[in-house]
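Board notes (copied after class):
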Amino acid sequence: MSSQGRLVELQEANDAIAFLWITTISEKHVQDKTQYKESFSALVGLLTAINGMADVITDLKEEHQRYSSVVLYRSLIEHFLKSTYITVKAGSERSDQVGFDYNWYCRYTEALQYGKGIKESLELTHKVKSKMNIKRIAREYFDYMEGVSERKIDKLTSSFSYKNIIRYISSHKSGIVGKDSPLFSDMIKIYPSLSSYVHGGVSAVSDMNFKSFDDKNYLHDIPESSLLLCMFSKASMLSLLGLESKNISEVGKKASEIFLSVAED
């Protein structure tokens, strides 16, 4: 099969899984009755972003904008890892706590980092030491954090770091998301090299200037890999929801079958 034929095959499979996914999560009774409400909310946001990035990466291939697709692919991987971590942890523990931690504790931590960034920027540009107490402001705004120690917050939010997610996923059984999965292991191998493209590193710029980009075959598979990660994410969420419903379980199995039929090609 040609490269273009393979891409079309993956797009059609992704569209089929997307239909099953959207149809399921759009049903109000699913939203209202699931015990994974926090995880549901987090996953819908993450998977919507993954789907959008996969679509754009595929379009960028047609426009021969490989550099841009690499930048997006790194972000897609980070979204994928977080969604996979939430899905696997929620399912294995039969608990919605991981979704709560992501939605609320990570939100507080991000706001804190954002505030500190603004404070530092103001100090750099105006050369005046700011007296803003960012932590106190954040605590007042996020009143649900009252009584929660910074140590606990750091522990909970650090579980969503790249290294800790990899460690957690790798500790699970071999298979699609296990350490023995080619899709997973290949993604992890190239992830560090993608940082240079995101941050304007010299190696990434040199790749474009000296046309060595074309020699890196693993970068050519980014559109295909993006679609596979996108499909897997949606099938995984359906499998999680399927733990509560026989009907959704059947939908999840169908989505997984579609994914496996193209992933094994």
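Comment from the instructor: The chain has one domain: 3-263. The chain is about 75% helix and 0% strand.
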